[in-house]
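Figure-free illustration: sequence to structure, shown twice.
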Amino acid sequence: MKTLSLILTLTLALTLAGCATTPCPTGKTPCPASAPTCATACANGASLGCVWATPTPLGATCEAVCANAATVGVPWNVGKLSTMTGCQ
């Protein structure tokens, strides 16, 4: 099971390493908000104290669980999880 956790963590790290950040354009239009991700969903859940945002008993992070859920066909609704105001 530790191998699975390590693979998930490594996959997430490599995925995030490949993400490029683009600076906001300067001008009269406001900078668009970034698209919600597993990281933003987990950060919001953690800030609210939600149990689902804590590591699993085997040590898998929230981000790794979220990323794994997407690979098995049960993706999290990261948009809603990133903006929710309570854990229910």
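We now fold a second protein in the same way, so the two outputs can be compared directly.
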Amino acid sequence: MLNTRKPIKEFGKLYEYLKDHDLREKEQSTGHLDIRDADFSGATFEDGFIGIWKNFIFTNCLFPASAAFQLEETTGCIFKMCEFGPGRKDVAMDFGVMKNCRFQKCKFKNGNIGLRKGEGSFTNCEFENTTSREYSWNYFIAGNSLLLTNCKFENYDVAGDTKLHMKNCDFNPSGHGSLHSGHEYRADFILENTRITNASEILWNKKINNLTLHGCQVEGTFSAQQSHIKDSITLEKLKVGTYHINRSGTEKKIIVRDCHFSEVNEKTTYLFSCSGDFAAEFLMERVEGTNVAAINLTGASSKTTEKFRTEETRNQTFTLRGCKIPHLMVHWLQTYNLVIENCEIGKLEIPNGRIGNVTIKNTKFDSLDLTNTLAGKFDIQPSGKIVTAGSNYPQGGHKIDGGK
């Protein structure tokens, strides 16, 4: 099919309609027009081609990622088996405000594509950068809202200003901030059933609103440590890779649900690590871990000092339900309410805590460490050995009034 392409200038009226939306509306209204096997690489447009494309169907067309294409609006267009690129790294093909457009089985190679304030749907597309893998030299695709389904990325950056949703994708970027948002604390990133490499750095220094990982497979470690996720983090059905969700700045809630952690993070030596009590609400339910290492829900350990404690207690509820975890660490926990229900836990460590109400019910544990933990009220159904040195268990009576 590639050899059948001919220059777009040879398409007569269709070429004129691409350049002049008013002419197209006058002569053809806005019904769908088909353009097949067109090569746009030799096209020239005046004034940077400030134009409008509406309801065109492009099939097997070639578009250079060129600054010559600077559209004002692209609406109702479909791109089938088209190719985009190559282009200079300091410019982009800009579709302007994109609405109701779809890209199907398209290939993007060595070129920048911008949807400006628009949204686009990409299905079975390939994004590849074969040039330098230096962090500042990745090609990108950017828009207000992007839906990417069954797509493959190789050393390509992606930017969603308000929403970025990846489904069933292979995401193999160079790392170091490969996921972007053009506005601080506004974007929601949703990665669903997606395979991710270089995951430890893809959110490097990013400031977003919400993060959701659902059914993802990570090669190595997914880290949010160098990013700031303001509102909520949701982790669901994770089974492959390790996840380091510490110092993320999350304010509202962190949810970890239906996950199975079995791989040890070489740097932290944990199966899973999270600053759970920084958010107002923490929920972990139906999570399982193996006995090769601990799950750490605060980021603190036996080496942590009093400097870890915050002046104000942020967390309102810290809840675990239906979990099976051989070794659980919840060191230096600060919360108004700790609830552990219907769990099976081998070694349960909650030392140095400052807690309002502690409720542990219908839960089997081999040992419970409450060393130096003070609480307002304890409601614990004993299961195994309880270590209480320096704690006010079982009488309680400690008031949570903001930390130290």
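Summary for the second example: Helices lie at 13-19, 21-28.
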